Structures are given as structure tokens and as C-alpha cells.
# Entry
Amino acid sequence: MDALNALPPLPPALSNAYDPEKFRSFGHKMVDMLADHLEHSQKRGAQSSFPGHTPSEEMAFWKAVLQGEAPSDQGSLLKAMLQRSNQLHDPRYMGHQVAVPLPQEAWVGAMTDLMNNGQAIFEMGPSNAALEELLMREIGQMLGLPEGCGGILCHGGTLGNLVALLAAQRHVSLRQGRDSWTEGIQPGTVAVLVSEQAHYCIDRAVRILGWGSEAIVLVGTDDHHRMDLEDLSHKAQALTSQGKNILALVGSACTTSTGAFDPLQGMADWAEANDVWFHVDGAHGAPVAFSETHRHLVQGMNRAQSVVMDFHKLCGLPALCTGVFYRDRGQSFLPFLQEAEYLWSDAAQEDWWDTGKRTLECTKRMLSTRLMSLRSGPGYDIWGTLVDRLWEVASCFAAEIRHREGWELAMTPQANIVCFRPKAFQKLTAAEIQAHRATYLRNGSGYVVSTTIHGERWLRCTFMNPLTEAQDLREMLAQWDDILAAD
# Structure
């Protein structure tokens, strides 16, 4: 008897779900819907680039959908999602550090989603493993790292910074004749030096790694919010006198709150003189290396042991896609030494093709396919062009604020991030300022966030949409003037 004869026929629901012609028909509808959305956004067709709903309003809407009190067919749901989400392709979007994706790259995401080669070992993602190894070497050298550089791709700058600090930790422990991977790190004995303006993910990584809150040592900043090298020396001397090991010095390129670039060249000098791992969190700003006009901002980054760069910020790729670059590609094997007999036979062997040996994720998306598509399409030069355009928008906006009556800048911007405010904010409480911003988000045309600098509240624009024009900026400022006049 052939036991396989007992296998029942494929259920019609499954054959329909996997039918290529149904997929083709649905895809054509999606192409039209998304192209219409892109055109509508670029023409500023909506009232605002921000939907303006409160959390309670959004919860009520989707609760009604789930309970059958509103249209819940697939087409209606997708259209509602488009309408009720942030419109990043609307030129009036000026919010957070999220890429306005190059539209064609979205189709690459559809392809990789369909293929779903979850990459951890070569057998599960052969093309991506090879491309990742080659592209990380190539892009690393374009960032200024030496010929022997390399690295890995991962899902986001938070993971990237965490993995880089793991490499620093193991590097230091091995140099001291022990292995932190097997023996761990005793809390209270190590420290990481970082700017007081650095992204919170550095502090989070240190706490996740179990080093303790005291392991994060904040270095003061100058009037331009860049790390103060003199304070760096003072803080380091204090740590040494306490008998602590300095695992790493972290430079910001640039800071999230103000867009300030730390003095990476001076930091590299200090790190080399003191034999300390130098890591650059370039999640947002590292792509300025591709701009002839602005690459001086990251001078010294080429001397780092590790660099993180998000391709889903200034590089125009959809989230998440982050590169962790190492000066010596062999250092990319430092963070982990994982036994997994069902995946690989030797945990210690440096197999570039099994990327799971070097990433926190076991499974990750086909990230290198996205990079290869961009390389073969608009090319890496588009990154420098994007940087130049977005920096120009920020510079012109800052000049307008500087000469506009009743407005002021927090600082001259170094990046595409501008912190500014009406001078009237000086007399308002934080709650009153937040109330005005809520009014703008509900009734205005754009999306503007806020931040706190030295205890004072400022508005903050991050210019990510290269289609933003002068009229969009004038409109936003006029709307803020109206809100303040009505107060």
C-alpha cells in the first residue's frame, strides 16, 4: 500500500490563494493605486502631509473596521491605510528622519517579499549572501575605509550600533586575555564615552548588554552641540583613575536632535593615541561622504573601527536597511560565536556566506537585493545628489528664519535638520507650545516635530523630501504665524 495515496487533494482556498493569474490581476490594481497615490502626494492633493488624527480617533476608526461597522474589504482597507498614514512623498513632509523612498525601489521590495529568501545561511539566501559581502566592501571603501574593510546588513541603526559595541566589547576582552562571549563582562568595570547629544539607542545598547547605567559616560558639547574634545580628555582621565576599561568612543554623524556632526578627526586622534575602539554612529549623516560639497563633515570617519549607516534615511531606500561597516572585515566576526549544528558545522570559522554568524538576527530580509537594484539603477551618485538637495533646502530655510521678524534659530544647521521657533515661545510653557503644535498638526499643511535643547522647546524640521519647494516653507511659516496671532 502506498501511504502517500492518503494525501487529500489541495483545498480550493489554497490553490486560489497561490494562483499566478490572481496575483497578476491584484498586482495591476496595486500598481494603479500606488501610482495614483504617488501623483496625488506629489501634487499636494491632501490637506496635509500628516493625517492629523489623535490616537483615540485612530483607534475608534480601526475598531469600527474590525467590528464590521465600516468597509473592511481588501480594497477599502488598503485605500484607508494610504489616506490615514503619513504622506512622505508629499513635499510638505518635514518630520522625522525617514527616507522618502525612491518609488521604483518599492517594487524591488515586492519581489523580495515574494521570494522571501530569509537570509541566515548561504543555502537560504545564496545571491544575497554574495552580494552583501561584495557591496559592503565596495560601499565601505567609498565611505573612506581601507581596502580590507567589510561588514554586514541588518534591520536598523539600533541593532547596528548594538552589534558594533558587541564587537568593541569582545575586542577589548580578547586583548586582555579573556573572552567576553563566554565569560561575560562585570558591570561597573567598563565605560563607553559618547556625546550628551547622542541618539538614545547608544544608551539602550549599553543597558541591554548589561554593562549598567554608569557605563554610559556623557561628554559635554560645545556651542554647536558637538562633542567637546577637552571634556573628552577630562572624562577619560577620571575613568582611568577609577580603574575602568574604556570599551569605545562613539562619535555622532550627526546627532538626531540638532544635526550636529562631532569632530570626528579629533576624536580619531584621541582614540588612536589611547588605543580605544572608535565607533561612528553615522545612521543619518554618513551618506554625506558621497557629496563633494559636504563630505568634510565626516572627515575622520574613515579612521573608525566601525561605522553604522542607515540606507533608509538619506539613501532613499525603504526601511529597514542598515550597514555595519568595519575597518577590518575580520572584526565583523567578533560580536558572536554561536553554536548551531543545524546551520553550520564550525562556529569559529569565518564563513562570509553564512551571515547569521555576524548579525543579531537569524533571519533577515533580502537587503542586499535592494542595494544592488539601486546600484544598477540610479547608482550611488544619487546619494550625493539627495544630500546636496536636502542640505540646500535646510540652508535656505535657516536663512529665511534668520531674517524673518519674530523668529529665531537654535543654531546654524550643519545638516538637513533645522531647529527654530517663534520668539513668542520664550514666554510660553511647554504645555502651551505642545498645544499650538497640536493645532498645527490638525489644521496645517505639513508635519513639523519638536525637540528640547538645554531645557527649551524648539520646533524641528528634518527635510527628507527633495521635492520640497520654497512655497511649501512659506506656507508652513504663514500657518504658524496665524496660530500664534489667534492665541
Q: What stands out?
A: Residues 338-345 have pLDDT under 50 and may be disordered. The chain has two domains: 41-102+389-487, 118-379.
